[in-house]
């Protein structure tokens, strides 16, 4: 079971997450890797239960579930809780069979070099901040009527750390800019061109440019990402005459708005050790057979 099941956004959807774990067993994958928007909301009781359920399911299945952070994961809390709980490969151990790959993390599986870079821009930031403000108003009202509860409201629906900063990325690449075989991100590289792109907005471009910079620095053979909630394949130039294949993955069924959605589009079986195929420039959106 040396294969890896790469999975798109789960958004804390327990039923779909359990389907992904069962699929990993069926496809003989010892590892699952979710490319962001996993559902890391341990500031809420439901988020802690979700971690418990997925951790126990992975243990029963004999697999380990890994994830990087998306724009809807509270990554600051992951570092606060688990920075001192790392395994031998440097992953943060959230549960024994559930582990987090922080931004810029690198590792080798079966002779294949990986790197993970999470983060993206939330296009619904305004809505989320408005909801947090309304929650704060309700807390203040309850206090006026004698309630002693003062739950935190800021940073519960929108997370300030959702995007990499330019300085953060510069520091990570300065620490190690050696090539990798497989790059795992939440956001897409700017150059990839899916025909259906719900994030084709000016506010999203800076982080896409950061991912593009990672591609052109690390020259991966393949990039897997989520965030767009749609399955597509593209090929982009990655500098020095090299090409990189981009595999965008769909999400859990409840979050998809894509009319041609299929559950199977939300995962990809990556054989290990990874054998780099001959890559040539190709038309975007050509799904593999």
Automatic annotation (TrEMBL):
Domain Calcineurin-like phosphoesterase span(s) in chain numbering: 3-230
Q: Which Pfam families match?
A: Metallophos
| GO molecular function annotations of the record | hydrolase activity
**Gene3D superfamilies in the record:** 3.60.21.10
Q: Name it.
A: Calcineurin-like phosphoesterase domain-containing protein
Species whose genome carries this gene: Nocardia yunnanensis
